[in-house]
Amino acid sequence: MGRILSVNLAVPECSTAKRVGITGINKQPFDGPVAVRAPGPKTTGLHSGLVGDQIFDIEHHGGDDQAVYAYAREDYDWWEARLGRVLPGGIFGENLTTVDVDVNGAVIGERWTIGDDLVLQPTFGRIPCVTFQAKMAEPHWLKTFTRENRPGAYLRVLEPGEVRAGDAVTVTDRPAHGVTIADAFRAYMTEPELVPTLLAIDGLPDDLRDVLGGRLRT
Asked: What is the rounded CA–CA span in Å between residue 77 and residue 52?
């Protein structure tokens, strides 16, 4: 059974990326329970699904389909070996650092029950941006991150609740279509021939579906 290794909330900092300004990508572990609820549509709020987790770029981040971001400790360990540096949980900007959870192998639309009440649903992978590039300060980081296809997962809140470090993570339902976060990320970023398969499934965010549909029409 998987579990939450740490719950991470934004500590605002000024990004070195041009025209970015203050960013919430710097996430630090929080000691104690954190309330989680659907934050509402994108651009309408300044917080993620975790109460107290600030968002500054509300045009590109947040909203119900990106309420929570999860990243696996096992993927961090893989990156540490590749990059030759220590990567503490939260440095990628995730709210939940997990252990023994196949985050990239999660099927879009499956259900994660966390702790006693919280239920989350994977929607898509994290698309890298210039703020992420500046935070990591690695040459060609956006291309490297994309190529290795370890994006972590955004999740929507199906049932609100609390989350804290140590909570169990259980997959309680998994759709039969089998399209994973890694599959969807690859279709969106590098293999457009997979887009029709991606559009055929339920659970994909509406704005993402619109973008992909537009690609097929051009």
From this structure: 28
Give me the residue label for tokens 């993402």.
208
Taking a C-beta distance cutoff of 8 angstroms, is the pair 141, 148 a contact? Answer: no
Which tokens is 112 given? 């994660």
Position 62 confidence tier, pLDDT thresholds 50, 70, 90: confident
Average pLDDT, the chain: 93
Q: What is the pTM of this model?
A: 0.95
Q: Where are the alpha helices (DSSP H) in 84-180?
A: 130-136, 141-148
Q: What is the pLDDT of residues 99-111, one digit of tens each?
A: 999 999 999 999 9
Largest alpha-carbon pair distance within the chain? 49
**Residue 129, Cβ neighbours under 10 Å: how many?**
18
96-99 and 68-72 beta bridge pairing: parallel
Strands 153-159 and 27-29: unpaired
Q: CA-CA distance, 62 to 205, in Å (whole number)?
A: 12
The token pair at 171 is 């997959």
DSSP 8-state secondary structure symbol assigned to residue 117: T
How far is the C-alpha of 108 from the C-alpha of 18, rounded, in Å? Answer: 34
Closest C-alpha to 166, from 109, 94, 78, 100: 100
How open is the CA angle 10-29-20, to the nearest 5 degrees? Answer: 25
